[in-house]
Amino acid sequence: MKIRSFFVSMLAIAALASCSNNDEFDNLVPEQTSGNAYLALSVNMPQGGSTRANSGPTIGNGTEQESKLTSIYVVGLKDNAIRGVYQVNGATAEAFKVASDINKVFVVANPSTKMLAQMKAAASYAAMNLAIAESVNEVAKTNNFMMTSAGVSPADKGLTTVTPVVATNESTEAINAAKATALTNKATVNIDRVMSKVWLKSVARNADKSVVAENGKASVDTWLLNTTNKNYYPYAELTNYTVSGTPAKYRVDTNFEKLDMAAATNAFNWLSNTKDNGTWNQCPNPEVGPAIAAQYCLENTMSVAGQVYGNTTKMVVKATFTPNGIENFTSWFRMGGVVMTFDQVNASYATASTADKATYSLFLDKLLTASRTKGWKGEGKTTEVTLADLDAIGKGGYLAATVNPYLIEYFQKSVCYYDILIKHDNRVQSKLLGRWGVVRNNDYHVNITKITKPGLPYIPDPTDPAITDPSKPNPETPNDETSSFIAVDIVVNPWTSWEQDNEL
Known about the structure:
Layout: E1 6-11, E2 37-44, E3 58-60, H1 64-67, E4 72-78, E5 81-88, E6 104-109, H2 113-121, H3 125-128, E7 132-133, E8 140-141, E9 144-145, E10 147-149, E11 160-161, E12 165-166, H4 172-183, E13 187-193, E14 195-203, E15 216-226, E16 228-229, E17 231-232, E18 237-243, E19 246-252, H5 261-267, E20 268-269, E21 281-282, E22 295-298, E23 314-323, E24 332-335, E25 338-340, H6 342-350, H7 354-367, H8 387-391, H9 396-401, E26 409-411, E27 415-421, E28 442-450, E29 495-503
Parallel strand pairs: 1-2, 2-13, 14-28, 28-29
Antiparallel strand pairs: 2-12, 3-29, 4-5, 4-6, 6-10, 6-11, 7-17, 8-9, 10-13, 14-22, 15-21, 15-23, 16-20, 18-19, 23-27, 24-25, 24-26
């Protein structure tokens, strides 16, 4: 019995000219019993125009580094059984061998090491699409952003139906005729980047370039993403919703159902007050120019029940906020919601009860672990604690929040941290699907319009058991009640950009 030759032709846009010249196949083509068959595919890159719908997404093209196709693989399936995985050269219209009995294909561009290994080892669609635990840095490399079949509807699961063209015989003429027929009947496969993109686009400023703020003065310095997913599906299933009768699409990721805090602690990457969080991103600053660098993250979507604080991807902004009446950007305190200077806290101590004085001293003893001989300024103390002593303590705002049983919030040098929960579709009403989350191949722009109050004096981390501050975020708290859905055009597969304005 002869091994037949079957081919797939990949036609792509000019960006594919940089693709690998390796047109060898990674899997042996199984022995076939039918004649030569040929398949042509047109692979559409994520792309878009420059228009913006009212309250909807901006259709934004990716950068060259985000769009280059370095390698393309086609998974050929007969129903849900994988018949072969083929690396193809998308820069040519040449034919490539495939199994004759395939009726579906799934395309992966620029696969990560784990994705490529899983794809090659899989015998079925289900095995190919198992969740992968991987850093976003492995799927969002410069000139090597991983992209996979986007799918059209929830039913297709990202698979495109194909019908190879069978040559009437094995002559050169018959084969060329089959190839030509295949090229005129190409199946179209749209691909999406598997990651999301978030960046801080703007910070509202006054005429003197100061940050727009109420009840005090503020600066906005750096930011990082928090509560980012550790896992992804090669293909995330589509799920439908509507906004005022307009159809829209969302995705189902690895943590779609609501997670309790124990599960969320393991499922997401969290910023920490005690560990190195890496390099923070710079905020836009008129003195140095716009900060246009984005941060990529893995998709994180949620069911309606899962749209709570502990499950939602966030942007944490590090800023300073000095309330009115406090010297600009110096340290200050808050006791029972009342803003105080260092001298006012001392005065409060002087008139406090004996029991309260003991708790004040406990606070200082805990905070000044490197200077335990120093007590609070007041009765029976031989050494006075100065504000400079407190300001010299590393992460003093966090350490103050770990003190028990008496809470004194300490805003060291006016430093604050603000959480901004990322909205996917700001037209969706509260407690409806699609309001929150970050979806693959979507680009989220955040604009800060105003700062109206101080944030927290430490990085908000609900996974940290040491923080006793009652204002610590509750992971079970539902996300805010104001919102709306936006239709996402996942057929053209652009970086679909969403903007949101925030008052802090």
